[in-house]
Design a protein that fits this description.
The chain is mainly beta. The protein has two domains: about 30-340, Glycosyl hydrolase domain, family 43 (Tachylectin-2, Chain A), CATH 2.115.10; about 345-495, Exo-inulinase, domain 1 (Jelly Rolls, Sandwich). Helix content is about 5%, strand content about 50%. The protein has three helices and 32 strands. It has helices spanning about 5-20, 130-135, 365-370, and strands spanning about 40-50, 55-60, 70-80, 85, 100-105, 120-125, 140-145, 155, 170-180, 185-190, 195-200, 205-210, 220-230, 235-245, 255-260, 265-270, 275, 285-290, 295-300, 315, 325-330, 335-340, 350-365, 375-385, 390-395, 400-405, 410-420, 430-435, 445-450, 455-460, 465-470, 475-495. Strands 23, 24, 25, 26, 27, 28, 29, 30, 31 and 32 form a ten-stranded antiparallel β-sheet that branches. It has a five-stranded mixed β-sheet with strand order 4-3-2-1-20, with no helix packed on it. Strand 25 (about 390-395) and strand 26 form a beta hairpin. The chain is globular, with a radius of gyration of 23 Å. Residues about 15-25 have low confidence and may be disordered. The protein binds beta-D-fructofuranose.
Length: about 500
């Protein structure tokens, strides 16, 4: 056999093996109850829209590799935001460029002329040939439409609809219908500011205003914004979500938000304070579904650009957070955004153990429970007082992941320093913390643990932390520890299973 033939057979063997592996849902770290693509790379959630009883989730996807590359929009559908069915690819690169992040709307009144109730996707074309020329003109906004509930898409012949005005980072359009001013409003990331554009037909856009200079965190480029409204005690408030990379509170990527007013032209924040949607390291580029009435339903990419391309998974890389409902809460006269898993999440949950009024000093061993659920679970705790405690996930390999509360600093934390494989990136082994925002004496929290992730929702979602971890073996030991002593008013341990 000549060398070339041998190499060819050898390579096909590898490809065949990889294809089989890609379909194996028992892969190490493959999430049980989070969306992840069957194979290959995913980053940001895109084009989320609710239509005819279905939630559409598109996502940044490289179908040819488990590393970031020419971006497509992958597609998944769910009827309940918890079980997802992956579909065929929705948008692929074309002569204008690769398909970067963006949004989708239902064009009820046929404002764009693609048909009544057409789904219209608004996205960034990223042209790497132009990028190489160094003019900074390589990103511009384009649209595509679907008349069959997102199965097939036609790109608009007049693309791009918003050419680049000379701004290097010019991307991630999030579009919504603004009823009072009777126009579509596009919220766009423009370097380290947000620029708002208006349109009546989704095809021609005019600049409304720009926000951000001197406001919030500026440790990195601003990306994937979203402008959403909330009614609070009869008054309307607008919240602007802005992802930033790097410069997040736990290093690298994170999403900040501003609470304020929007009059159809200008966004005015109530204050100049930096607040984060999630204080963990692994919730990025999250935005909300369109066409969901008064509900603000959010999903993020459960990863961080610091290491997204080298996390130790093989045939797939990247997952989404659980879908979360956002709310605006007023604590001592100040507004904060809270996130909690959507109520539909309860469909996956079966309680295994509950108890109440337990005084704990030292350690409570819940290992029997975690063994029954193969390391995947939901834990709900109500504690009588704010005192130091930690929830400890561990295994025989000596891996340990801690989630807890530190009274002295009044912070929640996740410590993944010794959680297993941590050396693939220098910053991964770290202890992350998020401030306690609630003022109550009692602590209540929900912890969701999947094969390689932990999501903490403390005090009705006022402090949220999401972190990835890669233990060498499944975590099969679980303890709650408190040296100073705590009273567990209520504990509920549940299995979480994809139905
Ligand atoms: C955010 C981001 C977006 C961009 C996309 C490219 O994670 O950098 O700004 O559109 O990813 O995949």
């Amino acid at each position: 056999m000549n060398n070339k033939l041998f190499a060819l057979i050898f390579l096909s063997g590898i490809i065949f093996f990889n294809t089989i592996m890609a379909q194996d849902r028992n892969e190490q770290y493959r999430p049980e109850f989070h969306f992840s693509p069957k194979s290959n790379w995913m980053n940001d959630p895109n084009g989320m829209v609710y239509f005819n009883g279905k939630y559409h989730l598109f996502f940044q996807h490289n179908p040819n590799s488990s590393k970031w590359g020419p971006m497509h929009w992958g597609h998944a559908i769910s009827k309940d935001l918890v079980s997802w069915e992956e579909q065929k690819i929705a948008l692929a690169p074309d002569s204008l460029g690769a398909i970067f992040s963006g949004s989708a709307v239902v064009d009820k009144n046929n404002s764009a002329g693609f048909g009544e109730n057409a789904l219209v996707a608004i996205f960034t074309h990223h042209n790497s040939a132009i990028e190489k020329e160094g003019t900074g003109l390589h990103q511009y906004q384009s649209i595509a439409y679907s008349n069959d509930e997102g199965k097939t898409w036609t790109k608009y012949k007049g693309n791009p609809v918003l050419p680049n005005p000379g701004i290097e980072d010019f991307r991630d359009p999030k579009v919504m219908w603004h009823e009072p001013s009777q126009q579509w409003v596009m919220t766009l990331a423009t370097k380290q500011t947000i620029t708002f554009y208006g349109s009546t037909n989704l095809k021609s856009w005019n600049k409304l205003s720009e926000f951000g200079e001197g406001y919030g965190a500026h440790g990195g480029v601003w990306e994937c914004p979203d402008l959403i409204s909330f009614d609070h005690d009869g008054e309307k408030f607008w919240v602007l979500l802005v992802s930033i990379n790097p410069g997040g509170p736990s290093g690298g990527s994170a999403t900040q938000y501003f609470v304020g007013h929007f009059d159809g032209k200008t966004f005015k924040p109530l204050e100049n304070k930096t607040k984060w949607v999630d204080y963990g390291a692994d919730n990025y580029a999250g935005v909300t579904w369109s066409n969901t009435g008064n509900k603000r339903l959010f999903i993020g990419w459960m990863n961080n650009w610091n290491y997204a391309n080298i996390i130790p998974t093989q045939n797939w890389r990247g997952a989404a957070t659980v879908a979360r409902e956002l709310q605006l809460q007023k604590i001592d006269g100040e507004f904060f955004l809270s996130s909690n898993p959507v109520p539909e999440f309860e469909k996956l949950v079966s309680p295994l153990a509950t108890f109440s009024n337990h005084k704990l000093k030292g350690q409570l061993d819940l290992s029997k429970n975690i063994q029954k659920t193969d390391g995947v679970f939901k834990l709900e705790l109500v504690l009588k007082e704010t005192r130091d405690f930690s929830i400890v996930l561990a295994n025989e390999a000596g891996n340990e992941l801690l989630v807890g509360y530190d009274k002295k600093s009044d912070n929640y934390y996740i410590d993944r320093t010794k959680s297993g494989k941590v050396n693939f990136e220098p910053g991964f082994a770290a202890r992350h913390s998020g401030p306690r925002i609630a003022k109550t004496r009692e602590i209540s929290l929900t912890l969701l643990v999947d094969a390689g992730s932990v999501e903490l929702f403390a005090d009705d979602g006022l402090t949220v932390m999401t972190d990835l971890f890669f233990s060498e073996k499944k975590m099969n030991k679980l303890y709650i520890r408190s040296v100073s002593g705590i009273t567990i008013t209520q504990l509920k341990y549940s299995d979480v299973q994809k139905k």
